[in-house]
Amino acid sequence: MSNAHFNRGPAYGLSAEVKNKLAQKYDPQRERELRAWIEGTTGRRIGDSFMDGLKDGVILCELINKLQPGSVQKVNEPVQNWHKLENIGNFLRAITRYGVKPHDIFEANDLFENTNHTQVQSTLIALASQAKTKGNNVSLGVKYAEKQQRRFHPEKLREGRNIIGLQMGTNKFASQQGMTAYGTRRHLYDPKLGTDQPLDQATISLQMGTNKGASQAGMTAPGTKRQIFEPALGMERCDTMTIGLQMGSNKGASQQGMTVYGLPRQVYDPKYCGGPELLGEDGLDGLYNSQ
């Protein structure tokens, strides 16, 4: 089975754009530093192409065995492709046990199918950092901070509950000046309005508005009706017998033509009736009465 069988074809569209962005993050300077570290640790030469020299997984397995002996029990000879993939898988499991974080580890296809060389480089740098943390002489990567676990006495922990932490702010320079007794209202006033500072509980605070300039002029006794009238209509002040504006207006109204209460009011049409003088006293047509 040839290596060409596992190589992907050219990428197009979004896949090509993503692959180009990942390739741009690849650091050639880091590659030279990794090459020098791996060759110096394993004693084997990688070759002209850095990633092609690591693709069979043999050098990677020897690297982790130098850092932690016995990590990979068996290193397969790169006869077939599945031997190479198994070597890469054994290397990835070994560095996980060594302490490399799972999110820093590449996948086997990233190296074997040349899909993400940037992630392979990041994994090797993380491995170098972990080796430096464990005391190995590595000039690459950073040394991770060691865990500093602290234990406090239970009494000291209880005392800390009475302290306001910085996450909740600070009460430094706090004062109770101007605070009223618990349960009473705190008055606010505006000096711009010229109002005096409230001294009693009868003052309306700004939260409820202001009564400056308020008057009770024109107010009636509690429970009585307040009459509303319109001076523009020439109306006098209304009394309890006058129809208020809420119910309309009776200005100009007349009782002319009204009959006695209970009697019918005749409606006639001049086109059909001679006139109101033809109606008799009982309201019937005079022509019919003469007959």
User: Which regions have little confidence, pLDDT < 50, spanning 5+ residues?
Assistant: 1-6, 287-291
Largest sheet properties: none
How would you sum up the global shape? elongated
> What is the rounded distance between the termini?
136 Å
Q: What key phrases describe this protein's structure?
A:
32% helix; 291 residues; mainly alpha; 9 helices
Q: Would you kindly provide a written description of the structure presented here, covering whatever features stand out?
A:
There is one protein chain. The protein has 291 residues and is mainly α. Helices cover 32% and strands 0% of the residues. The chain has nine helices and no strands. It has helices at 13-24, 28-42, 50-54, 58-67, 81-98, 108-112, 117-133, 154-160, 286-290. α4 (58-67) packs parallel to α5.
Describe the secondary structure blueprint for this structure.
Blueprint: H1 13-24, H2 28-42, H3 50-54, H4 58-67, H5 81-98, H6 108-112, H7 117-133, H8 154-160, H9 286-290
Helix pairs in contact: 4-5
Quick overview:
With 291 residues, the chain is mostly helical. It has helices spanning 13-24, 28-42, 50-54, 58-67, 81-98, 108-112, 117-133, 154-160, 286-290.
